[in-house]
Recover the amino acids of this structure.
């Protein structure tokens, strides 16, 4: 079985400060990891993915994520938050060889001007 | 290049009626996934289909819910005899392949309200 945990319901950060949104995962094999963002009344948009290789993955809109195998984590980061980054962020995992994608419960990011 | 198209965007049904939700995947995508989103519960997997085949329906309720993805036309999620608890946002996603590194592309969802 595969699962994802996003331990924070909400993250508040001041505009211009760095942000981190946490994610941990559980899989039986090697993971494929993803981050998505959802704006109100919209579908999820793909931000970035980790497949293999470099543990630091860069994605859209200046976001990046760090894969840590020993801690089974895949935290989303951005060096300088924008008010327009305020949205709901989902971490997702797919076990290698498995087709279903499992999503976390989501973390609401609020960037304060 | 059109993305994933879902219709209708909003659907209101009375208890006991049927709801039909449609999803046209991105051009060239033959893998379709349906998810249900409820506040405080995140995104719950329902079913994964390829053209004409249901691959994984482990998230589908055993009764009243069905899904199809015919050779021609959109994928359909069908809910019979709707109840208030079916009120939710239903999202469809498609991918180019069904393998690990292929990201899902989502539609804007259908918001079902059961009165």
């Amino acid at each position: 079985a595969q699962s994802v945990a996003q331990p924070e319901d909400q993250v508040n950060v001041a505009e211009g400060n760095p942000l981190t949104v946490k994610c941990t995962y559980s899989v039986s094999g090697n993971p494929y990891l993803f981050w998505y963002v959802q704006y109100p009344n919209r579908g999820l948009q793909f931000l970035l993915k980790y497949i293999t290789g470099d543990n630091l993955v860069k994605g859209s809109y200046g976001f990046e994520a760090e894969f840590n195998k020993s801690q089974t984590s895949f935290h989303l980061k951005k060096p300088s938050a924008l008010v327009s980054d305020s949205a709901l962020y989902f971490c997702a995992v797919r076990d290698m060889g498995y087709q279903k994608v499992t999503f976390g419960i989501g973390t609401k990011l609020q960037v304060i001007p | 290049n059109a993305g994933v198209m879902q219709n209708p965007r909003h659907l209101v049904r009375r208890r006991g009626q049927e709801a039909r939700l449609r999803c046209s995947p991105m051009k060239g995508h033959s893998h379709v996934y349906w998810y249900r989103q409820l506040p405080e519960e995140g995104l719950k997997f329902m079913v994964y289909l390829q053209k004409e085949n249901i691959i994984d329906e482990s998230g589908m309720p055993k009764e009243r819910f069905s899904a199809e993805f015919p050779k021609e036309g959109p994928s359909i999620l069908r809910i019979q005899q709707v109840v208030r608890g079916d009120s939710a946002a239903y999202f469809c996603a498609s991918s180019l392949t069904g393998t690990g590194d292929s990201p899902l592309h989502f539609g804007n969802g259908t918001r079902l309200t059961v009165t």
